[in-house]
Structure formats: structure tokens, C-alpha cells
């Protein structure tokens, strides 16, 4: 299988702790990468003290400079599901929905919105869908505190 090059591993080893410090995350995890035609998106997740709270996601094109991703909306996910094919590797690339699904584009146009979707929105929706489809938590890995927040169970060994 494909993995990270030594250069990318070294860059992540330097940039992820800086990301944790700059955004004041309790922990930062490398989520993975999505390859495009002209570039690759490297994705990281920032975790706060409450593990049940929504995670902050960031992406980078070079493993050094990171941009925060907005949370996915239902509309974003629905639009991204209509797109087929590979990512381009350019977050500002715009897909024209009129070429893909004329009916959906017409509904958006009537609603006062442009019938285009940026690749960054597609990336957000794709990450959300992957997490929803395959994200798991082993029983006993997390505990709920008396204050209501969810934390990792320090005694969990599974």
C-alpha cells in the first residue's frame, strides 16, 4: 500500500505539534490523505478536552501550512454526493453542478445560489462521509465524567 514519504513524515512531525500549540488543541491526530490529480490533501484532526464534541479538521497541501475546515452541512454533503471522479488537488477549483445534474443546479439557482461547488466543500463532505461510514470507538475506550464531558479511559488497554 501507499504510505507517506520520509519528507512528509518529517514535515508532519514538525508541523503537528505546532498546530496543537497554535490552535490550543489537547491532541492532534493525522487523519490521512486524499490524492488529487494535481495535488494531495493531508488531513489532521484537532481534539479538545471533550472527546464527544465535534472535532476540528484541518488540511494542508504540503504538510506544513494548515487551513481550518468548516463543519460539514447536509447541503454540502448532498451536493458532493453528486460529484464523481477524482479530486483536482486545488481547493479553489469549482465544479459546475449544471454540467453534472441540471435539476439540482436549477433548484439552487432558483434559491438564489450559484450552481457550483468548490473542491474545499467537496473535501469537507468527503471527510465527513468517510468518518460516518467507518468511524468506531471500542466499548470502554471512553468514560463520561460527572461534569458531562467525555474523556479517554486511562485504564483501557484494548
Walk me through what this model shows:
The protein has helices at 6-23, 74-81, 97-100, 102-110, 119-134, and strands spanning 27-35, 40-47, 56-60, 66-69, 94-96, 116-118, 142-144, 150-152. The chain is globular. With 158 residues, the protein is of the alpha+beta class. Strand 1 and strand 2 form a beta hairpin. One of its GO terms (cellular component) is kinocilium. This is Radial spoke head protein 9 homolog.
Descriptive terms for the model:
single chain, 158 residues, alpha+beta, two-stranded antiparallel ribbon, globular, cytoplasm, flagellum, cilium biogenesis/degradation, Radial spoke head protein 9 homolog
**Topology pattern, helix = H, strand = E:** HEEEEHEHHEHEE
Shape: globular
Helix content: 25-40%
Biggest β-sheet strands, sense, barrel: 4 strands, antiparallel
Q: How many beta-strand elements?
A: 8
Which structural class should the secondary elements be placed in?
alpha+beta
Radius of gyration, in Å, reads 18 Å
Task: Provide the spatial order of strands within the biggest beta sheet.
Answer: 1-2-3-4
Whole-number count of domains: 1
- First CA to last CA: what distance? 26 Å
What are the low-pLDDT stretches, counting only 5+ consecutive residues below 50?
Answer: none
**Average pLDDT taken over every residue:** 88
Q: How many DSSP helices?
A: 5
Strand content: 15-25%
Amino acid at each position: 500500500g501507499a504510505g507517506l514519504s520520509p519528507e512528509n513524515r518529517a514535515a508532519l512531525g514538525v508541523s503537528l505539534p505546532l498546530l496543537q500549540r497554535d490552535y490550543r488543541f489537547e491532541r492532534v491526530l493525522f487523519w490521512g490523505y486524499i490524492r488529487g490529480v494535481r495535488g494531495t490533501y493531508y488531513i489532521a484532526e484537532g481534539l479538545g478536552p471533550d472527546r464527544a464534541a465535534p472535532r476540528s479538521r484541518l488540511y494542508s497541501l504540503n504538510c506544513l501550512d494548515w487551513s481550518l475546515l468548516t463543519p460539514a452541512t447536509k447541503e454540502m454533503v448532498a451536493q458532493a454526493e453528486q460529484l464523481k471522479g477524482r479530486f483536482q488537488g486545488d481547493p479553489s477549483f469549482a465544479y459546475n453542478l449544471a454540467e453534472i445534474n441540471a435539476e439540482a443546479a436549477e433548484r439552487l439557482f432558483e434559491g438564489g445560489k450559484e450552481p457550483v461547488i468548490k473542491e474545499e466543500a467537496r473535501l469537507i463532505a468527503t471527510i465527513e462521509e468517510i468518518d460516518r461510514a467507518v468511524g468506531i470507538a471500542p466499548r470502554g475506550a471512553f468514560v463520561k465524567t460527572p461534569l458531562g464531558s467525555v474523556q479517554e479511559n486511562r485504564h483501557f488497554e484494548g
